[in-house]
Design brief:
Layout lengths: L1 E5 L7 H10 L3 E6 L8 H6 E6 L6 H15 L4 E3 L6 H11 L6 H8 L1 H10 L7 E4 L2 H11 L3 E5 L9 E3 L2 H10 L6 E5 L3 E10 L5 E9 L3 H7 L4 E5 L4 H14 L4 E10 L5 E7 L7 H9 L3 H11 L11 E7 L9 H8 L3 E6 L5 H4 L2 E7 L2 H11 L5
Parallel strand pairs: 1-2, 1-4, 2-3
Antiparallel strand pairs: 5-8, 6-7, 6-8, 9-10, 9-12, 10-11, 11-14, 12-13, 14-16, 15-16
Length: about 400
């Protein structure tokens, strides 16, 4: 198999994905904007050739890079970035060069929240009531039907960017004056609940071959809008209702040979599972590593084996709750780094700064830690994020 990996140097886990592809027997090529000398040594070792382009947003430059690889190496079997930002470009390249995977004619269904709901409904999964934000009169009619509060967000986007909770007419007035020109928005009912994800791998035959779940008790929207810190947990098992809804959604979307990351609300009042959105990529924010820590596995290797050989290995059994707790530079905390290591070093499996582009949601610095005791993991979160009063 010959695979082109787009932007292998960023995010940094691209190195792991390329390394495991190489180990699985694939010939891996890279296209990126970083100088070759700046690539990590393991990434250099995994790539048979790297083609640098000045502007990764320029489709013509990507086409020229692909032309180079095909002229030198022959037919390319796969093209991947595993990154939401490049979803449309990935699809365009696959379409232009007849490469298997998501094509341009389908990609709009994965980019626009307004189009996802039809697939969830087809799967028999309850969805959030939604209205395209065409004009204020239409939104007011939507509010008259479901009541305040509502959430307004870009129809296309991720990470809760430009997403706001609207609680009354005054908030709606404020949104009208600050909304971005040229951005299409949707209004959704506000769901009071936690987010449970369904993350995993689906093979060439459309079979889910691995799945895990993360639990977010905070609202990402609130974290972003208040510039606060974040915490979440990777669970050692998947809630049966999330599993059923997730599998139905994977089948409805017709996903093949992909990572998937599906977000559901679990309502606080009655524990209903309500679909939020689907992403055709690995879960972000160190969540791939959290899966590894919870299941004592290598999800990068499992993905690569699935792509190259349509096998993932396993079975993989969850054992640990893995927590993620970030800190923000502008917040004063009770316990410093050394105190955290002294108190919980035997449970901490990773800590590092976060890339600036992700820091608004993910924090400036973060820790990962695991335990078979969920209460202990929650206590570590509190210790890390204890704020000076």
């Amino acid at each position: 198999m010959k695979l082109v990996y787009f932007s292998p140097h960023f995010p940094t886990n691209g190195t792991d994905f390329c390394d495991r592809l190489h180990q699985a027997g694939a010939t891996v090529f890279g296209i990126g904007d970083a100088p070759y000398d700046h690539l990590a040594p393991r990434l250099k070792a995994a790539l048979s050739e790297y083609y640098r382009i000045p502007d990764m947003e320029d489709g013509d430059q990507v086409l020229r890079a692909m032309g180079h690889f095909i002229h030198r190496w022959g037919r390319i079997d796969r093209f991947e970035s595993l990154n939401e930002h490049w979803l449309e470009q990935d699809a365009a390249i696959r379409t232009d060069f007849n490469i298997p995977g998501i094509r341009s004619e389908f990609v709009e269904n994965l980019k626009h929240k307004s189009k996802m709901s039809a697939f969830f409904k087809k799967a028999g999964v309850q969805t959030i009531r939604q209205h395209k934000y065409v004009d204020r009169a239409g939104v007011e009619a939507f509010i008259a039907d479901i009541g305040y509060p509502i959430v307004i967000k870009p129809d296309q986007g991720s990470g809760a960017s430009n997403t706001v909770k609207v609680c009354d007419d005054r908030d709606l007035d404020a949104f009208e004056t600050t909304k971005l020109s040229g951005v299409n928005y949707v209004a959704e009912e506000f769901i009071d609940g936690i987010v449970l994800t369904y993350d995993g791998l689906v093979d060439r035959d459309g079979q889910v071959v691995f799945a895990a779940s993360h639990r977010f008790e905070q609202s990402i929207m609130e974290v972003v809008n208040t510039n606060s810190h974040l915490n979440y947990y990777c669970l050692p098992s998947v809630d049966p209702e999330v599993e059923a809804a997730g599998r139905a959604a994977v089948k409805s979307f017709g996903i093949r040979e992909k990572f998937f990351h599906i977000e559901f609300f679990q309502t606080r009042a009655d524990n209903r599972i309500v679909a939020l959105e689907i992403n055709m990529r690995p879960p972000g924010a160190w969540m791939t590593d959290a899966i590894n820590y919870s299941y004592d596995m290598d999800i990068y290797r499992a993905w690569a084996q699935m792509v190259v050989n349509n096998k993932v290995g396993g079975p993989f059994t969850g054992r640990y709750y893995t927590g993620y707790a970030s800190r923000k530079n502008h917040i004063r905390y009770v316990n410093d780094h050394q105190a955290i290591l002294a108190a919980h070093g035997d449970r901490i499996v990773h800590f590092a700064p976060i890339e600036d582009v992700f820091s608004r949601a993910m924090g400036n610095f973060a820790y990962q830690f695991r335990s078979e005791d969920f209460d202990e993991v929650k206590a570590i979160v509190r210790f890390i994020q204890d704020v000076e009063r």
